[in-house]
Specification:
With about 160 residues, the protein is mainly alpha-helical. The chain is built from five helices and no strands. It has helices at about 5-45, 55-70, 70-80, 80-105, 110-125.
């Protein structure tokens, strides 16, 4: 005696969809390999007409070899430093605050302007570690002790990914 009709339907549906899903997955892989081949061959100085029949493994091996041969400095130069990322995020927050603060009316106009001016000055001179660029030489400024700048929370994904928004 077989299973009732209802119990077999999900199983049959899964069995009928599996080939379609596999076909789509393979099509995505093949399209990505085609794009990778089109990107890597010119960078390696090879003509795509001369390499018309490359196996998938060949394309992947060429890509790995190309990425290993990249100088480490070019990878580092492309990635923003944590300090740049911090300044960019701080500037974006400041711009948003400058739009929202006058519109919400939570502060008096003069006080809001003073706050924005103070934050702009901090943005111009602050670094993520709370110091100022002029303090980085080891000589503290004689006028006043530096006030702490907002520092980013420690990111579990590593430096350079933190955004204050």
């Amino acid at each position: 005696m077989g299973l009732p009709r209802r119990a077999r339907e999900p199983t049959e549906l899964r069995k009928s969809l599996k080939p379609l899903l596999e076909k789509r997955r393979r099509a995505r892989i093949n399209e990505s390999l085609r794009q990778l081949r089109a990107l890597v061959l010119p960078l390696l100085g090879l003509e795509s007409s001369g390499c018309s029949k490359l196996e998938k493994a060949d394309i992947l091996e060429m890509t790995v070899r190309f990425l290993q041969e990249l100088p480490a400095s070019s990878c580092l130069a492309a990635a923003p430093t944590p300090s740049d990322s911090y300044r960019e995020g701080y500037g974006a927050c400041l711009a948003r605050l400058a739009r929202v603060l006058p519109a919400c009316g939570a502060l008096e106009r003069a006080l809001g302007a003073r706050l924005l001016e103070h934050l702009r000055q901090r943005a111009a001179g602050a670094s993520p570690d709370g110091g100022r660029p002029e303090d980085s030489c080891g000589s503290p400024s004689p006028s006043a002790p530096p006030t702490p700048a907002p520092s980013p929370p420690a990111s579990p994904r590593g430096p350079g990914l933190w955004r204050p928004w």
